[in-house]
Amino acid sequence: MFTPFNIISTVGKIIYPSLLWNFNLKEKHIYLTFDDGPIPEVTPWVLKKLKEYNAIASFFCIGENITKHPDIFKMIMNEGHTIGNHSYNHLNGWKAGSNSYVSNVLKAETVIQEITIRENYIPHYVPARKLYRPPYGKITPLQVRELEKLGYKIVMWDVISADYDAARSPQKCMSKVMRFSKPGSIIVFHDSVKAFPNLRIMLPEILKYFASKGFEFRSL
Predict the structure, then answer these.
(1) Is there a domain that residue 81 lies in?
(2) 35 tagged catalytic
């Protein structure tokens, strides 16, 4: 069934089969991911809610935000969550040349590695297994090839919460996530100021719902 919530992943799996969209699992594991942080108004709250359910997630961080808020970035690491790269300043791949796009990703990578190495966080961030998620999900075939040559695993999703959309109620976002998620699903949320009005209502309910169904929350 094609919906605005799954058409990107359905078509994307055909166009970009090397990207990670979801896992085919029998076990009740689900993968929560958060884009756009770290943000002081939102990320600590997300970490607190995840901890209440022993949930380990993956955070795709913007390099510029890490530079602004290194202590909050360290909080993510200290809680044992997985770190991914989300470019240095949320660059749209469809509007950027491949060289400038890759340079932007590498700039973010430098920021990530400087902190993880300095703070001895290597167990939580292994450079040989670099995770990257393109902002807006927009990336070109050439950009994919160049990043894969550099050792990145590009992570997409099969369920997007649309928490950033002020026109959608948190109840509508929540019901779609609950309906379309399945064992092995990768779900996108945003620890951003823009998404917080929806996220603060839906995340606790989603954690409660999937925990009651016997799901374990895993990191990538």
Answers:
(1) yes
(2) yes
Tens of pLDDT, residue by residue over 171-200, are 999 999 999 999 999 999 999 999 999 999
Which tens digit of pLDDT belongs to each residue from 132-181? 999 999 999 999 999 999 999 999 999 999 999 999 999 999 999 999 99
Q: Which of 90, 163, 190, 191 is catalytic?
A: 190
CA angle 160, 166, 167 (to 5 degrees): 90
Give the C-alpha distances (Å, rounded to integers) separating 43 from 19, 36, 217: 26, 10, 17
Specify if 193 maps to a domain.
Answer: yes
Is the CB of residue 39 less than 8 Å from the CB of residue 192?
Answer: yes
Q: End-to-end alpha-carbon separation of the chain, Å?
A: 26
Q: Which of 35, 158, 163, 191 is catalytic?
A: 35
For residue 84, give the CATH number of its domain.
Answer: 3.20.20.370
Alpha-carbon distance of 84 to 108, in angstroms, equals 10
**Within-domain flag for 1:** no
Give CA–CA dist 24/96, Å, rounded: 33
Which residues, including other chains, have CB under 8 Å from residue 140's CB and lie 6 or more apart? 93, 94, 98, 101
Q: What is the pTM of this model?
A: 0.92
Query: Is 191 a known active-site residue?
Result: no
Helix (H) or strand (E) holding 126: none
Q: How far apart are CA 22 and CA 156, in angstroms?
A: 8
